[in-house]
Amino acid sequence: MAEKMTDEEWRAFVSDGTRTGKLSTVRADGSPHVAPIWFLLDGDELVFNTGKDTVKGRNLARDGRVALCVDDDRPPFHFVVLNGRARLSEDLGELRLWATRIAARYMGEERAEEYGARNGVPGELLVRVGIDKVVAVKNMAA
Predict the structure, then answer these.
(1) Is 102 part of any domain?
(2) Which residues are CB-neighbours of 123 under 8 A, at least 6 positions away?
(3) Counted domains in the chain
(4) Contact criterion met (CB below 8 Å) for 86 and 64
(5) What's the CATH code of the domain at 74?
(6) 101 close to 40: Cβ distance less than 8 angstroms
(7) Contact residues for 95 (Cβ-Cβ < 8 A; gap 6+)
(8) Taking 90 as the threshold, does the pLDDT of residue 142 lie above it?
């Protein structure tokens, strides 16, 4: 039977391994845009980077509302949906630091600097989302 995850459980779940998040942003016409992202949790914030001129970058600059879904598509199935509002920064020091940390999670420590240098450059945005709402369910098919 499905059950809610505790705060500790959902944080561990979204931070486990190299699970990507599916980020939903709001287009200018009000329709949703969904894209996979690499991310980290930093306390009560979701952190990721994206290009300033990408669809999600433009959407976030105009309307900071986001939803992020992280799931496990294997039985017994689990998912977490985080909702919040994004703040954008172009501070190159912070951008490079977080791009490197995110890369360490997804590409490994041995390639973190390489990806941090690639993604921590002018034209990229550091995105911090204050998490306002969490829906976290485990054992959907148990």
Answers:
(1) no
(2) 51, 52, 53
(3) 1
(4) yes
(5) 2.30.110.10
(6) yes
(7) 49, 89, 119, 120, 121, 124, 125, 126
(8) no
Whether 117 is in a domain gets the answer: no
- Which pair of structure tokens corresponds to residue 133? 């709402």
8 Å CB contact between 109 and 116: no
Run of H or E residues at 67? strand 65-72
**Percentage of the chain surpassing pLDDT 90?**
99
| 93: three-class secondary structure by DSSP | helix
pLDDT tens digits for range 76-107: 999 999 999 999 999 999 999 999 999 999 99
Asked whether residue 105 is assigned to any structural domain, the reply reads no
Is 107 contained in some domain?
Answer: no
User: Domain limits at 47?
Assistant: 3-92+124-138
Q: Say whether 80 sits in a helix, a strand or coil.
A: strand
